[in-house]
Sequence to fold (69 residues):
Amino acid sequence: MKKEYEISGMMCMNCRKHVENALNSIEGVHATVTLDPPVAVVEFDSAEVPVEELQKRLAEEGDYRIKAR
Fold:
């Protein structure tokens, strides 16, 4: 399953890399993040990971927010 999310709080390529690495550290998640537009395309190996869990992981990296499109 593939899903797109809006990401806020990214200001540079370093931020983009932090967000991408954080999402990819979640088991069963494969994410590609772009800065312009600020979007994460996330593929799930099996069951979709709740957005709350994705947000929790991003919050550990900085002031990033994720929202389903």
Remarks:
- The radius of gyration is 11 Å.
- Residues 13-24 form the longest helix (12 residues).
- Residues 6 and 63 are 14 Å apart (CA to CA).
